[in-house]
């Protein structure tokens, strides 16, 4: 009951913050909104009319602004990319938020919440820089926390490039690229799980008597004099590790979160 009350209070605070932002935005734009409604009236409720009178003029302005900025950058840095590449770059600027949300969703579902936005930002910025400079660079999953753990670079590149056709109303390329990427991620995730399983069960402290059929829970024990350390690792489908470390001394059990034995630190680094 206490947990539900806390969650409800937290949700209430978030809802108040969101509503506060909505009110602030409405106040900031109220004068312009009233002006547009007075000019066009409720005919703006027709989607095509809204696009023609509201969205399209703003989109045209953004296009001119972006193209001007890119020409300035291209001249100052002696970039030599083609018009076709320029179009791709424009797409990634204009639909940055859309592409970022797609990437973020993939990372959340395959690698977890940690740094998912950072990984999305890394891929997009890395790819845009490659287009501008006309060079390609490989990346290593172990190089930085922002680098995706799974998926080949060419699969991520193909997926990003598919948005050019996607925003032009041609989804087939996007669907193919998405499926190829997810197949690669799925294969690599399973291979990583197999590799981790092999490393864990070969560890000298692995308790084979506690081996479970589902293969996702691993128990390790080490005893020295009157102290016994028991480490329980739980590996989820994303190969993320949760653990519980207990120290038993003279019949007293204590959960350990700091100053872990070296063998425990080494085990946690395997992933």
Q: What is the domain tally?
A: 2
User: Beta-strand level of the residues, as a percent range?
Assistant: 5-15%
- Major sheet summary line: 4 strands, antiparallel
| Rg from Cα | 26 Å
The total of helices stands at 9
Question: How would you explain this protein's 3D organization?
Answer:
By secondary structure, this protein is α+β, with helices and mostly antiparallel strands. It folds into two domains: 79-201, no CATH class; 203-269, no CATH class. Helix content is 62%, strand content 11%. It is built from nine helices and four strands, in the order H-H-H-H-H-H-H-H-E-E-E-E-H. Strands 1-2-3-4 form a four-stranded antiparallel sheet, covered by helices on one side. Helix 6 packs antiparallel against helix 8. The longest helix has 39 residues, at 2-40. 11% of the residues are buried. The model has no long low-confidence stretch (mean pLDDT 87).
How are the elements arranged and paired?
Blueprint: H1 2-40, H2 47-77, H3 83-94, H4 96-110, H5 116-133, H6 153-161, H7 163-166, H8 172-202, E1 217-224, E2 227-235, E3 241-249, E4 252-255, H9 262-269
Antiparallel strand pairs: 1-2, 2-3, 3-4
